[in-house]
Design a protein that fits this description.
- The protein is mainly alpha-helical.
- 78% of the residues lie in helices and 0% in strands.
- Helix 2 packs antiparallel against helix 7 (169-192) and helix 4 (88-109) packs antiparallel against helix 11.
């Protein structure tokens, strides 16, 4: 029961990132780039504290560090910019679908054996995204913001593939956040100057801090603590709940509407991932 509750809490944290980001931007409490920069900074501080508390120090070097930092930046800022327009649940679904497709493509590039069920699952997920994003499908989605969320999904997929190199996941995540933070701050200053953060309201800044320190920093640390105790298929299926939780949060907290186009796309994308992670019966 304890493991189940910790896993459920982690999924809530992941979904909360979508709701918090959308809430801040929908209320014009902060601009998207400043939100991403503050989220990175807050996450770096929290993860550094966790490393000193749990690992007695930081290890800023390691294999794949450059790729980890670049892919994290793609995810953070693609995610924030996309939520200038996308609803919380819709954005989470696009993100989740593209992550799965990216990791599938990564398996092909690395010449891993891909069984037929994974081909079928990837096809279903791709069909769901195509249905959702196709012009004239009826889904209210900006192509530019949908593309930005797809870029975020590509970044997070690369980040996940890069993380398979092994090592201490908490240390690696802390190092990636710490190295990415100066780049994020420079990006904020180049695009917004100091005016962007000066114009941000207290609520916007605190939502970004909450997203970075709690639902990202502590959420990732919690996930890494329970992940070794979960079978791979269970861990993958658990993440299927994230878009659904984000959608529910958006409906309750942001008055977002549930459309039948979203339901069809969600069934296809999440169903495709379920097919992909199922183990064949012996």
């Amino acid at each position: 029961m304890r493991l189940f509750l910790l896993t459920a809490l982690t999924m809530l944290a992941f979904a909360a990132n979508s709701v918090l980001n959308r809430m801040a931007l929908a209320e014009d409490a902060i601009d998207a780039v400043s939100f991403g920069a503050v989220r990175l900074l807050a996450g770096a501080v929290m993860l550094a504290i966790l490393c000193f508390a749990l690992r007695d120090g930081l290890a800023l070097r390691g294999p794949g560090r450059a790729l980890g930092v670049v892919s994290l930046l793609l995810y953070i800022f693609g995610f924030s910019l996309a939520y200038d327009s996308l609803d919380a649940g819709l954005g989470a679904l696009v993100l989740f679908g593209v992550v799965q497709i990216t990791m599938f493509a990564g398996a092909l590039v690395l010449r891993e054996l891909v069984p037929p069920r994974r081909w079928l699952g990837a096809g279903l997920a791709f069909a769901g995204l195509a249905w959702l994003l196709w012009p004239g499908s009826g889904a209210e989605i900006s192509p530019m913001h949908g593309g930005l969320m797809a870029l975020a999904g590509f970044g997070w997929g690369l980040y996940s593939l890069n993380g398979r190199r092994g090592g201490d996941a908490l240390q690696a995540t802390a190092a990636n956040f710490i190295w990415a933070t100066p780049v994020g701050v420079v990006l904020m200053l180049v695009t917004q100057g100091t005016q962007g953060i000066a114009d941000a309201s207290n609520s916007g800044i605190w939502l970004a801090v909450l997203s970075g320190a709690v639902t990202s920093g502590m959420g990732y640390a919690l996930w890494y603590s329970v992940l070794p105790k979960l079978p791979a298929a269970v861990a993958a299926v658990a993440q299927l709940t994230v878009p659904v939780i984000a959608m529910a949060g958006g409906m309750v907290l942001l008055s977002e509407a549930l459309t039948w186009q979203f339901v069809v796309a969600a069934v296809l994308v999440l169903g495709g991932v379920v097919v992909s992670v199922q183990r064949p019966r012996r």
